[in-house]
Amino acid sequence: GAVVSQHPSWVICKSGTSVKIECRSLDFQATTMFWYRQFPKQSLMLMATSNEGSKATYEQGVEKDKFLINHASLTLSTLTVTSAHPEDSSFYICSARATGVNTEAFFGQGTRLTVV
Amino acid sequence: AQSVTQLGSHVSVSEGALVLLRCNYSSSVPPYLFWYVQYPNQGLQLLLKYTSAATLVKGINDFEAEFKKSETSFHLTKPSAHMSDAAEYFCAVNLGGSQGNLIFGKGTKLSVKP
């Protein structure tokens, strides 16, 4: 299957700083990318959907000014957690899919963010 | 609205025993259904998917699932559990179309006893 690379796999940052997480589709063009957040022992919650070249669509309750998403190219999307706080500590997972009907979404390996 | 319910947050089986993980869905349109596996601190790996073709879907690692419209179910099975199958399993429904996102169930943790 196609490969989606997410970087970094884990990061520790100080409260108040910003952290950028990258999601790359290595062997296909990702028209759409999704960002999920997963709390411990819980399911994935969709945060936002981004289409290349346009603004991301955020799910209800997700602060777009805090979680900045950029999808500037067909192979790269970034999630920046701004002014991070301990409650932002979580596992963040991206997925990417190409254009077409019934196209599969491929997942990155996730990023464990710990804010201290 | 589409939703997914996974019955049982934790299932424990013995090595070599049958694995049955339950998933029921709710959808106002013909659904696309998926099963994913997640190992600790990793992303999701697709096990299998149903996209309106054959109702019995075979996936990787001898997993399979059967789409039953009358029961609105898509249960995941494996004839013989292996220690390496211990992981978290998620059932998901696609809202449809090339831009549809996935709605996930809450997950079922599978433990395999030696």
Description:
The complex is a heterodimer of chains A (116) and B (114). By secondary structure, chain A is an all-beta fold. Chain A is built from no helices and eleven strands. Chain A has strands at residues 4-7, 10-13, 19-25, 32-38, 44-51, 57-58, 67-73, 76-81, 90-97, 105-107, 111-115. In chain A, the strands form two sheets. In chain A, strands 2, 4, 5, 6, 9, 10 and 11 form a seven-stranded mixed sheet that branches. In chain A, strands 1-3-8-7 form a four-stranded antiparallel sheet, with no helix packed on it. The model of chain A has no long low-confidence stretch (mean pLDDT 91). Chain B is mainly β. Chain B is built from no helices and eleven strands. In chain B, the strands form two sheets. In chain B, strands 2, 4, 5, 9, 10 and 11 form a six-stranded mixed sheet that branches. Chain B has a five-stranded antiparallel sheet with strand order 1-3-8-7-6, with no helix packed on it. The mean pLDDT of chain B is 90.
Tell me the structural class of chain B: mainly beta
Gyration radius over CA of chain B: 13 Å
Structural class of chain A: mainly beta
How do the SSEs of chain B run, as a string of H and E? Answer: EEEEEEEEEEE
Q: What is the strand content of chain B?
A: over 45%
Number of strands of chain B: 11
Mean pLDDT of chain A: 91
Question: Quaternary status of these chains?
Answer: heterodimer
> Helix share of residues of chain B?
under 10%
What share of the residues of chain A lie within helices?
under 10%
Low confidence ranges of chain B: none
Low-confidence stretches of chain A: none
The main pleated sheet of chain B reads as: 6 strands, mixed
Per DSSP, what share of the residues of chain A sits in E-state strands of 2 or more residues? Answer: over 45%
The shape of chain B, in one word, is: globular
Number of helices of chain B: 0
- Helix-strand pattern of chain A: EEEEEEEEEEE
